[in-house]
From TrEMBL:
Keywords assigned by UniProt, alphabetized: Gluconate utilization, Oxidoreductase, Pentose shunt
Similarity comment: family membership: Belongs to the 6-phosphogluconate dehydrogenase family.
Pfam families listed in its UniProt record: 6PGD, NAD_binding_2
Positions of the 6-phosphogluconate dehydrogenase C-terminal domain: 159-225
Signal peptide residues on this chain, from the entry's feature table: none
GO molecular function annotation: NADP binding; phosphogluconate dehydrogenase (decarboxylating) activity
Lineage: Eukaryota, Fungi, Fungi incertae sedis, Mucoromycota, Mucoromycotina
GO BP terms, alphabetized: D-gluconate metabolic process; pentose-phosphate shunt
E.C. no: 1.1.1.44
InterPro entries: 6-PGluconate_DH-like_C_sf, 6PGD_dom2, 6PGDH_C, 6PGDH_NADP-bd, NAD(P)-bd_dom_sf, Pgluconate_DH
Protein name: phosphogluconate dehydrogenase (NADP(+)-dependent, decarboxylating)
Disulfide bond found in the keyword field: no
Pathway: Carbohydrate degradation; pentose phosphate pathway; D-ribulose 5-phosphate from D-glucose 6-phosphate (oxidative stage): step 3/3
Amino acid sequence: MTVADVGLIGLAVMGQNLILNMNDHGFVVCAYNRTTSKEFCSKLKRPRKIILLVKAGSAVDNFIEQLLPHLEQGDIVIDGGNSHFPDSIRRCKELEDKGILFVGSGVSGGEEGARYGPSLMPGGNPKAWEHIKPIFQAIAAKAPDGAPCCDWVGESGAGHYVKMVHNGIEYGDMQLITEVYHIMKEVLHLTEDEMADVFETWNKGDLDSFLIEITRDILRYKDQD
């Protein structure tokens, strides 16, 4: 009996929360646990849409190999892990040669984002987008104007390339915050509360961001020891 809108492989924290998110938006999810690939694939509506949330590298290739004998032309495999974009380029080509549509999607927002709305960066075989768009844009975070934080970013390895750039910007921001903290503490000799006041002021202006906000909260926190 084929009832599920989408299948998901990888039941760690991100996978569990993404399932709950999709369920909240009315999508039926078939989760891969101890059933065989054949049984798993038989539960999915055509074209099958299968999300992989497993460790980047050989695990992705291994699961794809297990799934291939049970897939049909036009089925869609989505890698939602942190794969390196050249691997996504390769997988997109290899699966296209077999008639399978591959999507590599960046997923940002961590555990809470997966549960209540991540930023999604899908790219790959463009034929897949019309089939996954309703799901992806429904579960994605929403901008203040209501627009989903998800759109098609390009072909082949574009999704994971965009996620790589995203991560680079994030790590750069974190480095800037640590340098500012060092100057405030070691040069200006500010207390934690005084530093928190500065970050709170910054978070009300152009520097408003999650990283500035949590830095403020960390500085406000009082250890009990």
